Amino acid sequence: MNNYHQFDIIVVGAGGAGLMAALYASRGASTAVLSKLYPTRSHTGAAQGGVGAALGNQGEDHPEWHTYDTVKGSDYLGDQDAIEFMCSEAVQTVYELEHMGLPFSRTPEGRIAQRPFGGHTNNNTGKPVPRACYSADRTGHMILQTLYQQCIKNNVTFFDEYHVIDLLLVDGAAAGIVALELATGELHVFHAKSVIFATGGHGRVWSVTSNAYAYSGDGVAITLRRGIPAEDMEFFQFHPTGIYNMGILITEGVRGEGGVLINNEGERFMERYAPTVKDLASRDVVSRAMFLEMQDGRGINGERYMYLDMRPEVVNKYAAEDGRKRQDGSPYIVTGEELLSKLPDIVDFARTYLGVDPVTQPMPVQPTAHYAMGGIPTDMYGQVVIDEKNTVYPGLYAAGEVACVSVHGANRLGTNSLLDILVFGKYSGLKAVEYSNEVAFQELPEDAEDFARQQLEDLQNRVGDENVVDIANEMKDVMNDYVGVFRTKEGMTRALETVRQLKERFKNIQLGDKGRIYNTDLLSVWELGNLLDLAEVTAVAALNRTESRGAHAREDYPKRDDEKWMNHSLAWIKDGEIELAYKPVVITKYQPQERVY
Amino acid sequence: MEVTLKIFRYNPETDKKAHYEKFKIEAQPTDRVLDLLEYIKGYHDGTLSFRRSCAHGVCGSDAMRINGVNRLACKVLVQDLGRGKITVEPILGLPVLKDLIVDMEPFFESYRGVLPFLINDEPPPKKERLQSPEQHARFEDTTKCILCACCTTSCPSYWSNDDYAGPATIVAAHRFVFDSRDRAGAERLRILNDTMGVYRCHTIYNCTDACPREIQVTRAIGEVKKAIATGKID
Fold first, then answer.
1. Residue A362 CA, distance from chain mean position
2. Phi, psi (5° rounding) for residue A69?
3. Is A324 part of the annotated catalytic residue set?
4. Complex ipTM, two decimals?
5. How many other C-beta atoms lie within 10 A of the C-beta of residue A147?
6. Interface check B182 vs A, CB under 8 A
7. Chain A to chain B, count of Cβ pairs less than 8 Å apart?
8. How does residue A1 score in pLDDT terms, banded at 50, 70 and 90?
9. What is the DSSP letter of A41?
10. Quick count: other Cβ atoms within 10 Å of Cβ A586?
């Protein structure tokens, strides 16, 4: 077989989860990392505000508080055993990253600096607690760089610009993957005992998104095609503050540093929706509030955006009203210089893309598709589980945004995604080593690469007059309009019908590039196929859940229904049809309660 | 408004040599150059090839030469370029593989050569290693690097000799040399105290102008030069 490679462990994806998995995996077994991008291009690098851990460097905090906040933030859909595990691992994990060299911002005492973030609270007072460990507003960038540097130090093997197309399963266990080498257009077979998917999310399903082009849901789409279910796909987070029209993320850290959302009447409207934590409520709560304000005509100039205001005089006015204090007890008063040093990239983005200087002008923002709570179902060690009974699939692992543990439930708290990639990246790597050291390589079938080849040849051979970009845009628009922040049966049905029509039209596309070398046209089209599949699964799962919970807010079922819906959805694609089943949420300490901020 | 893009084209499967191709399209002043390239790829010529991912200046995929200067295509708006004439070419000094895609391997090889990772074999404390805000500020600027290669491929010294380590590699060294937690500064300075090291820098400042992260690249190189000359890291 040409282009054949063998490693104990193959990690697919080189963002934070993939690199963390690779670091741990490579210590105990032969490991290679594949990525369709150069590792440092991964979307982890776009994360801004911080990684959550109850270090207590800037005020009292406890992992138990972090656990409760995450359970509450998840609207009680997160699995509490996994959440407790993640939040207790958080503290040591952040120290470990610091020891690896991560350049965190520092307190005057030289400790890791922390800032408040949405939904993270002092459990006694209900007030915001600084839990987000940050490096200015480029924490994800620093995590990605630090982990990549450590991989270089530890001689981890990389296959850069290798695009995964298929997962190989033999006799009920993982056996490798098939990938396309961008530079040559050739398929490669990677024979492995363990496969770890760390391919990120699928925010490119929606038109206004903070997500990279690369976020096309490859991992979930590939595993669905191989009979593995996808969990909780109806839950997709809209981050409240994306740059108007463009969707580029403006970190919640802006509000952590005292910024406020303002409507067309000049009102800090979050006071009405979340009286205790106000602008630092959970993301689902804030995004819904913005929609309701805009629906009632209080968007700026009646348009579909609000102002995010971090001008020092505005920050200081509301901080005084809130009685916010610094750690030393002095009143919280900021200067433009301080904000610029803590949020330099935000200032740069606003200047570049909006022509707005946020130190002297408010920024126009709107909710932007941001994060997949759903994904490949796993247990808390990254092992993929494939049914209602959580049966482990041998040799198959997933970590990071592509996975659904589920620690984020119906709504992820800010800073918990960076924590998720580190903790579950690490444990999936460790588990994969354990497993790989116990088993032998399976025999691969002769035709290992056939399914991948068929998929690509099929795309290359399509003949028709449908335009790929048109199809993509129609999908994104209909998903944004009807499977977005607010949902109804009518809207979602319309979206589902449209997506299904688009899948038919997708059969009549024609590739512009028929070549082999760097055929990015072919790969973009293959990615669109993934997005269409995931859009359909999302709409089907969302239609079936007749309640409102976290990011899944239905106008026709406005209440949470704990009697019926304390469960995770599982979706399979069988012969082109989507089948759904459900498994119960794991509850340990916290019974569902009404969720107020 | 109507804009004309003149784009460097080279397809190794069909072209004997590189050429330029012009596209006239409608654009908004606030469109990114990347948006225009995507539009051309989607509606005019699917073979047009370039790298991109985050589309807002943090992943470093889409470094290109735009109207003669190195930029990220996602961080330049049509209105920044004036007159609606836009020339897009691959960054210089690295082999062109297809259209705007260059071979990044030599760039990353140079980066890996300077020990771009924290080295400190002392047992770490139970919590974080302490570092004052001042110590952090000493190297914070160079931590911003996204390895896009805009700086290195804007450097005339690099163009004339691609064995030169190049600005990005020296920036990576600087990030660790001046980190109070690191213990291998002397080793990195030894690597850069070489005929292909820092002395190839003739303070032309192209790198600083090119950096999309506004890193003071030339200053960082100067600080590394000074540390080598004085044998002191401060």
1. 27
2. -60, -40
3. no
4. 0.98
5. 31
6. yes
7. 160
8. low
9. G
10. 15
